[in-house]
């Protein structure tokens, strides 16, 4: 076995040890419908949420050659990011329920052409989780302040899911700082969100059909004050999030059990779960803010999966000037993980 292979094996082993130290989540178990009750494992006392996330990030970044962790304090909070590469800055904003790590498959190739920053947005991963400021306009101001702290005047920016809404808010509020914008599978909250039905369309939960339409019931559930934090503890969080990863996937193997466990670990503590749900609780304010925004005039790329949850195409055609909209066949919500090669191709063509 080569030295490099041994190093990667040790890194994976270390990650497994870290995930096993989590106090409330059964990390190695994927969701199985009608699974028999399992014996609860003996739980090992874990370090604080902050030190645990930082320890995991230190191990994860070792799997990405040429990348390293960084932090900056902006708007009174600490933002964590992973950076690497040389060239013009490209900010990548992740979504729910993931972290900076969702871009791991595309970061090394993009780093050949850009200085890549994959950023844990406010409330995510190793970034701070204050009790306020989860409207996307405020979160966009975090990214703008980070850009200034890093010494840039303008950037390329891309986002997925909640990160996509923050990226759009960034472009809307700081057009002078936005060279180009890419959005993956999710549009910014607008008045159309108020028309989402409470009853799911027929076949929405037919898990045997990967081409079924998806119904985002969690938009409402996560926005309920306090309740999700009480219900989604321990094994329940493991079950719920694994269900979401599978439900929103077309290519389920694109997310391994270990990778899902890494994400779940980042949301296992009460403050982390509360912060994530606050992204959804701010949707009403996000809609009000959206109604004050002007049509975007910078170049915009939208990528969505045919089995994702997006109205991204119509949204961009209505609210941006001459967008490029790409539909990926046989692709779910997790664009950069299910279709990394195509995502890289589209980004390289668009951001050049």
Automatic annotation (TrEMBL):
Going by the UniProt record, its keywords in alphabetical order are: Hydrolase
A Gene Ontology term for the protein's cellular component: membrane
Cite the AB hydrolase-1 domain residue spans from the record: 89-338
For this protein, what is any one GO molecular function term? hydrolase activity
Q: Which SUPFAM superfamilies match?
A: alpha/beta-Hydrolases
Q: Which Pfam families match?
A: Abhydrolase_1
Highest taxon of the lineage: Bacteria
Q: Which residues form the signal peptide?
A: none
Recorded hits in PANTHER family, A to Z, give: HYDROLASE, PUTATIVE (AFU_ORTHOLOGUE AFUA_2G14860)-RELATED, MONOACYLGLYCEROL LIPASE
What protein name does the entry list?
A: Alpha/beta fold hydrolase
**Could you tell me which species this protein originates from?**
Paenibacillus silvestris
